[in-house]
Automatic annotation (TrEMBL):
PROSITE patterns: VOC. SUPFAM superfamilies: Glyoxalase/Bleomycin resistance protein/Dihydroxybiphenyl dioxygenase (SSF54593). The lineage of its organism: Bacteria, Bacillati, Bacillota, Bacilli, Bacillales. Residues 6-131, 156-280 form the VOC domain. It comes from Terribacillus aidingensis. InterPro entries: Extradiol_RC_dioxygenase (IPR052537), Glyas_Bleomycin-R_OHBP_Dase (IPR029068), Glyas_Fos-R_dOase_dom (IPR004360), VOC_core (IPR037523). This is Glyoxalase family protein.
Amino acid sequence: MMELHGIHHVSAITANAANNYAFYTKVLGMRLVKKTVNQDDTSMYHLFYADKLGSPGTDLTFFEIHRAGRTYTGNNSISLTSLRVSSDKAIAYWKERLESFDIAAQQVELQGRQVLFFEDPEKQRLMLVSDQENKGVHAGIPWEETDVPAPFAIIGLGPVKLTVPELEPTERVLMDLMGFRKKANAQLADGTDLYIYEVGEGGTGAEVMLEVMPALQKERPGRGSVHHVAFRVKDKEELERAKKILYAAHLPNSGLVDRYYFQSLYFREPNGILFELATDGPGFATDEDPDRLGETLALPPFLEDEREKIEAKLTPLDTKKK
């Protein structure tokens, strides 16, 4: 089986990079650690929000697609992204903070943890989860240059929820190929059953939740939908081993892809959800001063010769520290 170490990043879609930047930095207090472009379509921004260092396991990223329509939620989708905070007190802080911005927030208990459901302005489905009892994968380091107090800061990615029409095909890939193990069953307030799996050290940074909804239509993605979820692997050698495992299981994959900040491999599990495997390094400080991450447009070396053409297609986005 593969050797995975938890969630690496989640990538979603926004229709407006400037509004997205304002919400995730000013309201949620996350750090923009990389302002770059989608390497497969350089006409769109790719924004990475994370902890202070841009640590693997803390990155929530967005592709800007100007004409992205609304999302019609449904099956075969990544239907919830969660963000870690340190304690139950942090959950209470965030409920009050979000409501001060006129954002509805529902606090409940899930798996014995305090969680807070809410949506961003584009109806991105989000959940804050308390790490108070976490004994698994370590969280990131709070970003202190924000008005969110450090003890309450967002410090990483938590469980992702997948909505699928059938449990078994996705479960087989998670458990037989990717090394996940069953952890628990849980139930949402509306009575929906969740099947929960963890990998590596486990804990909030290494969980996948499956929601089985056979009657739903397939999701039609748009702004506020999730494009893919990435899982952590140690290095390129581990990616190569994962590729062989996928080939042996007759699952098509992208082969290794050089993203410069990490190495990747992509494949779709049987219910059609896009998974990525991504290495922990070399990281976002490869081409920028760690103190100035995200302030200018960063391009990997293989795109640098096209900088002038790329910048001409992008709407200017001021992300410099004031």
